Amino acid sequence: MQLSDLQAITHEDLLITRLGQRTVDTPLQDLLGNRQESVHYVTETDRVLVDDTLGIAKNRVTHTADLPAFNPGGPRAKLFFDPSEVTAAIVTCGGLCPGLNNVIRALVLHLKHAYGCRDVLGFKNGYQGLADGSDPVRLTPDLVRDIHNRGGTILGTSRGNQDPATMIDTLVRHKVDMLFVVGGDGTLRGAARLAAEANRRGLPIAVVGVPKTIDNDIPWIDHSFGFQTAYARAAESITAAHVEASSGVNGIGLVKLMGRHSGFIAAHATLVAQGVDFTLIPEVPFTLDGLLAGVRKKLADQGHAVVVVAEGAGQNLLPASTATDPSGNRKLGDVGAFLRGALTDGLSDLPFSLRYIDPGYAIRSVPANAFDAVYCTRLAQAATHAAMAGFTSMMVGSRRGRFINMPIKLATATSNHVDPYGDLWMAVLETTGQPLTL
Ligand code: ATP
Ligand code: MG
């Protein structure tokens, strides 16, 4: 069975692990009212349907109760933890992404102000800071007041594997009841191992993920935070390449964007900036001959050509690499440099000028835009509600506009890709005018 398959997903795949009974009244009553009169609390029977396509729904069930559905995000009237006794901790891991500081700020403020949490600790430099014995910082509302205006993460980040047992020892030493992990697929796998280790030792520690992936490759959720900021910034580089290309004689603009396995940034930035002639993504193979012929034709027809390539595209055209980063992720070949060389060689019979732009780090490091700032805040609030309820080994996200709690196991079983037969890619083809296959 493929866990990405809507038809195959079951109730069990969607169950959230709980630390225990919820018996503590929420302190949010001043904000949200008491149980009887408030519609804001999520009850046991609330569910968010996995699919909203009537045809699929009709095919698989006779009763609506049989439809697979997510545990909804949001506040519970009864909590597992007594917030006044809680020590929470935050860690950020993996690559940079716009919005990390917004998530940290919103977690701290929501934990301290809304729930009246005792302490919030920040472990530095990703999982490394949980393993190396260094002291965490105490995160206060004062300390995080202005951080949402800055890119990066005030906690720092790292790659590289750490021992879950050592990290749990650290959490126990600092009396941490709930750990918020902000990171990508690798980070979430690490979080699941932490939750498993805590469970093995019978420790009631909630581990809740806020998924961070600039590539938007986490499955089942609408999008990940920072993604919109990233493609908005990426589109500026495409526009610059377009201006350069259309101002030269046979000008060629080549822009390399992020997207190791998923071409969402390249696809969306293409739709924002327009003026792109060829968008190359990992999900859709292309040949060098096809691309060269296409560029040649564009130069003849309109005097310039703009090519956008996601970093994971065309890897089959490059020498295979076995190098890995400290977390064990395979290092990709540099398709941008490769295409620059290949275009230069392949068009050497023409007069042309080529401008190559690689805005990678400039995109990762910017502050979140308005949309992502809202999303980060709401994700952090959903994560806090979930942890207080005693949910663990899960992550938050939005699906069709509703906040959900999702088992990490499901989130890491597959990844999100641009569907070459889906309507997003169709929109890209309609916008660029590039052929279905190059
Ligand atoms: P990015 O979006 O930048 O790739 P990521 O979270 O996937 O983010 P990684 O560097 O792959 O980034 O992983 C971050 C942290 O999670 C590292 O400390 C890494 O050791 C840990 N990690 C990665 N994969 C696993 C795994 N399978 N089990 C446990 N920990 C893992
Ligand atoms: Mg990753």
TrEMBL record:
Cofactor requirement: Mg(2+)
GO MF entries: 6-phosphofructokinase activity; ATP binding; metal ion binding
Top-level division of the source organism's lineage: Bacteria
Keyword set, alphabetical order: ATP-binding, Glycolysis, Kinase, Magnesium, Metal-binding, Nucleotide-binding, Transferase
Every Phosphofructokinase domain range: 88-386
Catalytic reactions on record: beta-D-fructose 6-phosphate + ATP = beta-D-fructose 1,6-bisphosphate + ADP + H(+)
Protein name: ATP-dependent 6-phosphofructokinase
Protein species of origin: Cryptosporangium phraense
